[in-house]
Amino acid sequence: MNANKSEKTSQPSADQFSVLRVIISAVQNNLYMSLLLMAVTAGSILFSLLPPLVLERIIDMIAAGKKAGLSIAASYFMITAISGFLDAAKESMITIFGQKVTHRIRTAMSEKLNRLPASYFIENEPGVTASRFVNDVNTIESLFSSGVISMAADICKLTGILIVIFTKSTGLGLMLLAVTPALFLMTRLFQKRMLKAQLESRVAVGQTSQQIPETLNNIRTIRILHQEKYMLGRYGKTIEQGFQAQERSNFYDAVYSPIIISISALLTGIMMAASAQSGIIRQFFGMSAGTAAAVIAYVGSFFDPLESIGMEIQNIQSAAAGFRRISDFFKENEQKKSPGQEPGLPEKNTAVCLRSVSFCYKEGEREILHDFNLTVMEGESVILAGRTGIGKSTVIKLIAGLYLPERGFVTLFGRSPDTIPDAEKRQLFGYVEQQFHLIPGTVGDQISLMDPQVSGLQIEQSLRMTGLWETVCCLPQGIHTPCTENLFSQGQFQLLSIARAVVLNPKLLLLDEITANLDSATETQVLAALEAASRNRTVISVSHRLYGMEKNRNMRLITL
Ligand code: ATP
Ligand code: MG
User: Fold this and answer.
1) How far apart are CA 397 and CA 383, in angstroms?
2) Residue 15 pLDDT exceeds 90
3) CA 442/CA 361 separation, integer angstroms
4) What is the Cα–Cα distance from 268 to 172, expressed in whole angstroms?
5) For 226-247, what is each residue's pLDDT tens digit?
6) Of 102, 114, 119, 107, nearest to 7 (Cα)?
7) Rounded to the nearest whole angstrom, what is the distance from the C-alpha of residue 392 to the centroid of ligand 1?
8) Per-residue b/e over 189-217, b at no fewer than 16 CB within 10 Å?
9) What is the CA radius of gyration of the chain?
């Protein structure tokens, strides 16, 4: 397959779906909400700066022997309440906005996933793709909940506090300005160490919990080989590692707050002592009692945004990595169109045609098929035979359009399989594999695959055809019974597989070793179902053993 990296850059621009574009379109689609969010954020910063100023006036009035009126007390209360309300509104709007963006990203990723060729799934572990959908998108969500927006808000708040303090006490302002870089570096250091310890703890906890099922699964081997002590030692070691990492994390957490409180107290003490001095020092530090109270409140709230900024930087860094991985996912090659020249019209009544087909799973690797030709006419039954690994299943998958040929072409009723819309495919062909693939849902869902064009009657008919109807009727909720791995035997699942393939009455049946793992009694049952399902259809099947059906039907054997 031509899944080479160089093609990534030559994708049509319409196919390129960048994360940034999703975010911009989310902002455009929610323009009013975005503007409101900005206004609420600005309001919340402004209102968070006001209460100490009102407090300053109240204390100064009291110190001057004036009576602080009810109105000023009420305004203090109102401002504090509004500040709290705006803060809560800001937080929930950021969360909603983040969810809207991640919802769009996940939708775009799902759409992309449907357009990816089978080679993508061969080359990439399912866990890697799942991690992009879950972890990487979560990091982008945290970019909103605790990333860029909140960082901008915190920087504004910090700047606001510094400006107010400068206007109230230049000396304290200068002192704060001087200690801020060192404080920030210290905060980052603590946060990095804490994060490292938390990650180590998580790894150790993961290893510890993994050992429990591992031990249970191998309990007999462990006992036979007298490895109990070794297993216990391993278990104890990971538990110890987890404890140590957790202790380190707790230590940094416990030590950070007292350091910050001490620095804050030290600065306040210096400021108070200096404001009691005379001369130039007093000029720098001098202030009224009310101003002192306000300034102490500001100093107290100065360290919170500083700490938050540290965490926000951390989140932005991990979001950047998630951002990059999702962007790479969007750049993955999509299902390419059939190579080579247009096939031209195959002979009339041709169900399947493979002409001069060459195919390999990975570029540069051994060709599984070379110049392969196969023509199957409508109504014909064909058996593909040949030694294991020769490429029988590969031929079936090429016909089903799961892979595209490297050279040559494949047509299905005169059309290239990759150009047939998904909704139409089930009416053209049914595909039964050796293994039944269970989907979450009821027995009926296993057959309809949640396709709204499949009616209840069609489900019943397909079950009757395969001889499974009576069995399903005996289930507690009939076809509405939730389907689990243990609900049916292997042979019954294979019958379900046939029902799934024929439910929309397709013109062609593709069967790949469907009786390979069955005992002879079940095999007879499955073959009978197959016999019924194959009537009036084109059938292409793969088998080491030739089915009994060839006695009754005119079957053509093709050896690869
Ligand atoms: P069997 O009778 O054992 O089912 P088969 O004739 O159906 O064999 P295929 O499954 O078509 O053989 O495989 C043909 C060759 O392609 C084998 O060498 C196999 O290793 C290789 N192959 C099959 N599937 C993949 C895959 N997903 N990625 C890479 N190579 C594959
Ligand atoms: Mg096979």
Assistant:
1) 15
2) no
3) 35
4) 8
5) 888 888 898 899 899 989 988 9
6) 119
7) 8
8) ebbeebeebbebbeebbebbeebeeebee
9) 35
Residue 368 near ligand 1, beta carbon < 6 Å: yes
Provide the pLDDT for residue 283: 64
Q: Which two tokens stand for residue 410?
A: 């494949």
Q: Please give the pLDDT value at position 404.
A: 84
**Strands 350-359 and 429-432, bridge-based pairing:** unpaired
Ligand nearest to the CA of 389: 1
- The answer to whether residues 179 and 267 touch, using CB atoms and an 8 Å cutoff, is yes
Round to whole Å and give the CA distance between 434 and 517: 8
State the SS3 of 328-342. HHHCCCCCCCCCCCC
Which residues hold their Cβ within 5 A of ligand 2, which is an ion?
Answer: 393
Residue carrying the six token digits 């915190």 = 154
Residue 362 pLDDT exceeds 80: no
Best mutation site among 393, 517, 559 for ligand 1 pocket (most ligand atoms within 8 Å of CB): 393
Banded pLDDT at 496 (limits 50, 70, 90): very high
Single-letter residue type at 479: I
How buried is residue 388: exposed, middle or buried, by Cβ count under 10 Å (0-12/13-18/19+)? Answer: exposed
Query: Which residue is associated with the tokens 């930087």?
Result: 313
Residue 358 to residue 1: CA distance in whole angstroms: 10
Q: Which two tokens stand for residue 453?
A: 């064009």
Q: Tell whether the model's pLDDT for residue 446 goes beyond 90.
A: yes
What pLDDT digit, counting tens, does each position of 541-554 carry? 887 555 555 555 56
Q: What residue's CA is closest to ligand 1, atom 18?
A: 389
* Cα 503 from Cα 464, distance rounded (Å): 11
Flag the least confident range among 277-291, 464-478, 530-544.
277-291
Q: What is the C-alpha separation between 144 and 315, in angstroms, rounded? A: 10
The atom of ligand 1 lying closest to the CA of 390 is 6
Ligand 1 nearest-atom number relative to CA 513: 4
Region for 386 from its dihedrals, namely left if φ exceeds 0, alpha if ψ lies in -120 to 50, beta otherwise: left
- Report the residue among 369, 383, 394, 399 best suited for mutation to probe ligand 1: largest number of ligand atoms under 8 A from its CB: 394
Helix, strand or coil for residue 437?
coil
Cα of 389 to ligand 1 centre, how many Å?
A: 5
Please tell me if the CB atom of residue 517 comes closer than 6 angstroms to any atom of ligand 1.
no
In this predicted structure, which of 22-26, 222-226, 325-329, 408-412 has the lowest mean pLDDT?
22-26
**Residue with CA at minimum distance from ligand 1 atom 22:** 361
The Cα 305–Cα 49 span in angstroms is 13
H or E element: which one contains 292?
helix 289-330
- Res 60: pLDDT: 86
Query: What is the pTM (predicted TM-score) of this model?
Result: 0.61
What is the full DSSP assignment across 249-273? HHHHHHHHHHHHHHHHHHHHHHHHH
Q: Report how far residue 5's alpha carbon sits from residue 265's, in angstroms, rounded to the nearest whole number.
A: 59
